[in-house]
Each structure stands twice: as structure tokens, then as C-alpha cells.
Amino acid sequence: MCVLAAKNSNLFYNPTFRSLLFQTLAAAALGYFIYSIINNALTNLDQRGIATGFGFLTQEAGFGIGLSLIDYDETFSYGRTFFVGLLNTVLVSVLGILLATLLGFIIGVARLSSNWMVSRFAAVYIETFRNIPLLLQIFFWYFAVLQALPSPRNSISLSESVYLNVRGLYFAKPVFEPNAYWIGLALIVALVLSISYAIYAKRKQKATGKQPPILWVSLSLVIIFPTVSYFASGQPISLESPELKGFNFRGGISIIPELAALLLALSIYTASFIAEIVRAGINAVNHGQTEAALSLGLPQGKTLRLVVIPQALRIIIPPLTSQYLNLTKNSSLAMAIGYPDLVSVFAGTTLNQTGQAIEIITMTMAVYLTLSLLTSLLMNTYNRKVALVER
Asked: So where does this one cross the membrane (predicted)?
């Protein structure tokens, strides 16, 4: 008995056993807590006669949406509105991340420029836009700028097929004929060849020290192959220009002012934070690296692109990920100006019409959580790729 008691005592003091035991107890307590909340909520809803479940997703929505990347009208179901809102959220998030990254890197590098005017301009940009609340910036672009544009009949003509007015930006839409798939195939072949050539050029550079022109060769392949295919297949792509009919334009592609205002505000606001992250990352690189590159005869542009930025990325990427996540979540402010994102059309209109609060809010939260986790996964993967490999 004494030996058994001693073994049990030793087992309890084993760090591995204790950590497993405490984690199991914590997971059980958390599971019971979540179960209690859900059970209590379902009981209250049942007592009030409120139906639960996801059956409402098959019901007819009965309302229109101003922007849809997939086919949609009032006769489609609430499930369709969910996907329309989801795609609109992904659209503004992806475009916002791309524009904010490009603008943020430019402003961040300009902040370190030896030109006094350029560096001061970058500093003023950063201190101005990052200190004004994002919601106010959205209102500024939407009400003060875009809503001040002329009516469709008095549209600003930027070219023969591009028009700007209070209802949005209208431009020609490409119309694809059956033979147009040859152009798509040519583009895929060009991209494959470009990637293959880039891999070959990297290996050659490591072997000989000479850097082949990757950018210009890749651009040439991407431009020449589809162009040749376009003419060889009989020019199967035409343009459908917008035309003023009645009180608005018909045909072509339109960018609604809500999307433009939200995209401008998100990109400009987030770029001010990215610029400071880029500046801090570049400053963290030892100045001796720059001096060594310049002493070898590298121009300043190549020194920045080939020596400084690759080392700075190891510092830039982690906080940059947080800004990407913030931009995606901040896109939910679109509801303030009527942009039909997920919060507006699903957690807003659909919730008001169906009353399925728990299901709709849960689905909306799951979407933002999934988008954030995917963004973190991609950025962490890239971060591991550029990280220093130590022995």
C-alpha cells in the first residue's frame, strides 16, 4: 500500500501528468460553460416561441443588393445574401490590403528620404491620417467628395467610355466570345514560363553572381503571349461601353461610390500605420549593410531592394499582419455608408427580417474569424520563409 501511495504521489508531481490533467479540467470547464450558455439561450427562445435553426437560409430574401459579384435578385434566398455579403467583404478587404501595402511601403520609404520635402510630406501624411478616426474618413470620402460629384446627365467624361458621376465610376466591360479561352491558356503558359525563368535566374545568380533581368523578361512573356493569341484567335474580346439611358448609365462596369469611399478610407488609413512599420523595419537594419552594398558599387535603388528590404521584412511582417487583420475587421464599418458587405446585408437586413439573431451573428463571427485565421496563416507562412535559418 505504501509503495502504491508513493507511486500515485510521484505521478501527481510529474510535470507532464499535471499539465495534461489541468488542461483536461480546463477544457471540460470551458465546454460545460459553452454548453450552459447555448442551452440557456435555446430554452429562453423556445419559451418565447422563437424558432431556431438554419432553415431560414432557404427562404426568399425579398430585397435587392446594390453590388453583387454573383447572380442575385429579390427572389433568391437568404443563403444567397450571405454569400453576396461575404464576397463583397472579401473584395474590399483584398483590394484594401493590396492598396494599403503599396501605398504604405512608398510612404515608409519616402519617410526616410534625404530629400527634405519628400520626407516632410510623408511625415505629414502619416500624422494626419492615422490620427483621424477611420469612420470620419469614410464619411469624408463618401459625403464630402463623392456625393459632391455631378448627376449622371452631367457626368465627368474621362474618355470616350469612362464616366464619373455621383452614382459611381462607369467604364467599358470586356465581352468574351467562345474563342477567348485561347487567350486564357496563353496567359497561363506565360505565367508558368515566367515562374520557371525566375527560378532559373535565381539559380544562375547563385552559381555565377550575375543577375539576369527577371522583371522585364517576365513582363514580356505575360504581354506577348496573350497578345499574339488575341490576334491569332480572331480578336475574340470586344468592349461594351456604358450608355446614358434615362437617368442612369446602362452597360459596362460600374464602381459604386460606397465601394470607392470605403476602399479609399481603409487604404489611406491603414497605409499610415504600415508606413511607420516599414520605416521602423528599415531603420532596424544595420547601417553597415547599406555601406557595404554601396561600397560594392550597387546603386541606392538596388541597395534598398536587394539588401535592405529583404532584411527589414523579418521585422516588418509580424506587425504588418496585425494591420491586415485590422483592415479586414474595419471593413465592417461599411454599414455606415450603405456598402453591402456581410454585416450590412446579412447581420443587418437579414437579421431584421428573420429575427434569427443567434444563427446570423454566429455565422458572421465565424466568417471574420476564418478570414483572420487565413490571413494569419498566409503571413506566418511567408514569415517563416524569410526568417533567418540558424544552425
From this structure: 20-38, 50-70, 82-110, 131-149, 180-201, 213-232, 252-275, 357-378
What pLDDT is attached to residue 205? 81
Q: Is residue 181 part of a domain?
A: no
Q: Which of 41-45, 141-145, 258-262, 380-384 has the lowest mean pLDDT?
A: 41-45
Containing domain of residue 357, as a range? 44-147+255-391
Alpha-carbon gap, residue 140 to 298, rounded angstroms: 44
Q: Is the pTM of this model over 0.85?
A: no
Q: How many CA atoms lie within 13 A of 267 on its CB side?
A: 21
State the average pLDDT over residues 23-45: 83
Distance CA 336, CA 262 (A): 10
The CATH number assigned to the domain holding 379 equals: 1.10.3720.10
278-302 residues labelled b (16+ CB within 10 A) or e (exposed)? bbebbeebeeeebeebeeeebeeee
> Does the residue 345 lie in any domain?
yes
Distance CA 198, CA 217 (A): 9
Q: What is the pLDDT of residues 306-340, one digit of tens each?
A: 788 888 888 899 999 999 999 999 999 988 898 99
- Environment class of 149 (CB within 10 Å of its CB; exposed 0-12, middle 13-18, buried 19+): middle
SS3 248: strand
Q: Which residues pair with 163 in a beta bridge?
A: 157, 170
Instruction: Return d(Cα 83, Cα 170) in angstroms, integer.
Output: 25
